[in-house]
Amino acid sequence: MSPQHEAPASPGDRKDLRADCSSCFGLCCVALPFARSADFAADKPAGRPCSHLRNDFRCGIHERLRDEGYPGCTVFDCFGAGQKVSQVTFGGTDWRQAPETARGMFEAFPVMRQLQELLWYITEALALPPARPVHKELRRALARIDGLTRGSAESLVELDVNALRGEINVLLLRAGELARAHVPGRRKNHRGADLVGARLSGADLRGASLRGALLVAADLKGADLRDADLIGADLRDADLSGADLTGALFLTQAQVNAARGDATTVLPPALDRPAHW
Ligand code: SF4
User: Which of 53, 99, 156, 185 is most buried, judging by how many CB atoms fall within 10 Å of its CB?
Assistant: First the structure.
């Protein structure tokens, strides 16, 4: 754990903000649409089960996803939305047993995912000691959003999630600034920058703002990304081999899964090294 981070507060414990596929009714494999592309080998409309989804809600090609043309499935992370909709919103009754619930379940899932993602970010911010000046507001937001995730499917679908995201983003921005202010030296600002394919091998990006930066296919080999704010940064195919992401702020498993890396990439402890690295 980075000196910038301390144990997360609950609710919003990180283990509840990670996918638990064994408690989910395969919602990401049914509720979401995907288009035939480099990420998915077939088209599928929202609400139709993927042809590889088994009756026990497990993926029939889980071990071979990349070889079979479904790398997109290895990148996706629901932040625990799948098990929450399955077990909390719908009380453990699946859409095959109760087909009349299917539509509500599939509509609630993407909303829940966004709420769970916000809970992840807030939990991250609450683990940052320098962000203490905004912890009270963050704890209030955490409790409020946690309450929203426990509402009915109807209440979830009616939520204005964009407005909520905008509101929370102000707090997260402040928390990130407070945390980065403690990083020694000059901190670069690449917020929202177009860095697609950029050659940043070995770059000193410690404490940088890379909020929303487009880093698709960027060469970040051996880069110093300690304590950098990476919220919303697009890291698809970015090369993080040998990069140091200790204490990186607001980094998610989905971002890491979408990037490339190797055994020498240093990740924050809350995140797993992707199997395909
Ligand atoms: S390929 Fe597997 S993981 Fe991907 S959507 Fe289909 S069942 Fe789900």
Answer: 156
